[in-house]
Amino acid sequence: MNNLEKYGLIKENNQTNQNLGRVIAQHRDLYQVVTNEGVLEAKVSGKLRYQLESPIEFPAVGDWVELETKIDIGVIQKVLPRKSVLVRESSGSSSKGQVIASNIETIFICMSLNHNFNPRRVERFLTIVWDSGATPVVVLTKSDQCDDVEEKLQALEDVCFGIKVIVCSVIDETGLAELQTLIQPQQTVAFVGSSGVGKSSLINHFLGQDLLETKQIRGSDDKGRHTTTSREMLILPNGGIVIDTPGMRELQILTGDVSKTFEDITELAKDCKFRDCTHQNEPGCAVKKAIDEGFLDADRLTSYLKLQREVSYSQLNSRQLENQKINQIFGSKKAMKQSRKHMQQIKRR
């Protein structure tokens, strides 16, 4: 088995291409790319940089690329089509997007069974994972620190319906064998989650060595500190391929599949009296009826509506977004101007 086959190369990836490589790490504008000849540093060619229109089109960990070798550095000429890509909104006010990982079969959404536990956070991660094209698996870590595991699993019943949920602990090795069966040779998986939930500890266990730095979460509030600072791809002893990602204290959504994450609400909405029902105050709303009858958690509907708005906003440009918010608050720009005029008249009195 050659280098690229170890990193997941299959015939569909154009195995005869001598200029093929896979991005295994990224450090700002420099990339580490594995080829059949070994690992080399690479940068994006000027031509490709000019052609790419969005930050999410630039190479990312997991990407298959075509590159040329010039003296001691590779030059990436092309990013091959991705079969899956996990994207989040980048930090800051501009909507640019950031690729977390690409060409992944399974994404492990990690959440610890302490104060970090939050079903609403799982919904946010599921929204972007379903949109990525990969299969989500929810991993509940640090079960050795939890006395009410069954209660927490029950809280996730609606959120994780049809999704595999694994309860595990690195300390007493609960659930680790089950988790490892989902990391097959030449298959690429990624671990995502908040800081301090134990992603690096899990990967270290599967590596059989403490290769990734880990830090304990603060005992005062169970919040973790960023340990992994960049994305990198690792080969496990069993041949599985793992992408470790930095912890995300705040997950902002660029694109997402809300209907898949909230399939229960999507199905209920089909029985609403009005096709464009917003599930607020309309008569004949099947979703509100389900809440009143105790079949649906009101917090889940609140989360659904919030994520639906976020996804809608992220797909608008800044001017459209401004108009959308004005319409939501005032009804229209005309109404906003009237409200502003009214306030000015009050101040003059």
UniProtKB/TrEMBL annotation:
Transmembrane segments: none
Residues where Zn(2+) binds: C272, C277, H279, C285
CP-type G domain sequence ranges: 94-251
Binding site for GTP: T141, K142, S143, D144, G193, S194, S195, G196, V197, G198, K199, S200, S201
EC number from the UniProt entry: 3.6.1.-
Record text on cofactor binding: Binds 1 zinc ion per subunit.
Gene Ontology MF terms: GTP binding; GTPase activity; metal ion binding; rRNA binding
Membership in a protein family: Belongs to the TRAFAC class YlqF/YawG GTPase family. RsgA subfamily.
Job of this protein: One of several proteins that assist in the late maturation steps of the functional core of the 30S ribosomal subunit. Helps release RbfA from mature subunits. May play a role in the assembly of ribosomal proteins into the subunit. Circularly permuted GTPase that catalyzes slow GTP hydrolysis, GTPase activity is stimulated by the 30S ribosomal subunit.
Name under which the protein is recorded: Small ribosomal subunit biogenesis GTPase RsgA
Protein source organism: Companilactobacillus suantsaicola
